[in-house]
Amino acid sequence: MDHMSPKLRAFLSEPIGEKDVGWVDGVSHELAINLVTKGFSKAYILLGQFLLMHKNEAEFQRWLICCCGATECEAQESSNCLKEWCTCFL
């Protein structure tokens, strides 16, 4: 898929394992700091939040923006990344 960013392609290339939250496409350094502060230090923990929201991208994006300080672009890219990972691995 040519429209994928290198970060998204790398994230989707293998299981999440113990990857830090900064590996998630759309998570900037600043957003990663905010997420770690809130207890979301690993990508699988952020994925868990996405799954708790029943993979509802709009709800997840609102949560990232309101509770974690994400920009709209970061929220969209992050939710898309986790959605694509679910499609590949679940």
UniProtKB/TrEMBL annotation:
Primary site of residence: nucleus
Molecular-function annotations in GO: DNA binding
Subcellular location: Nucleus
GO biological process, one term: chromosome organization
InterPro entries named in the record: BAF, BAF_prot, BAF_sf
GO CC field: condensed chromosome; nucleus
Known role: May play a role in BANF1 regulation and influence tissue-specific roles of BANF1.
Self-association and partners: Homodimer. Heterodimerizes with BANF1.
PANTHER family, alphabetized: BARRIER TO AUTOINTEGRATION FACTOR 2, BARRIER-TO-AUTOINTEGRATION FACTOR-LIKE PROTEIN
Protein name as catalogued: Barrier-to-autointegration factor-like protein
Organism: Orycteropus afer afer
Lineage of the species this protein comes from: Eukaryota, Metazoa, Chordata, Craniata, Vertebrata
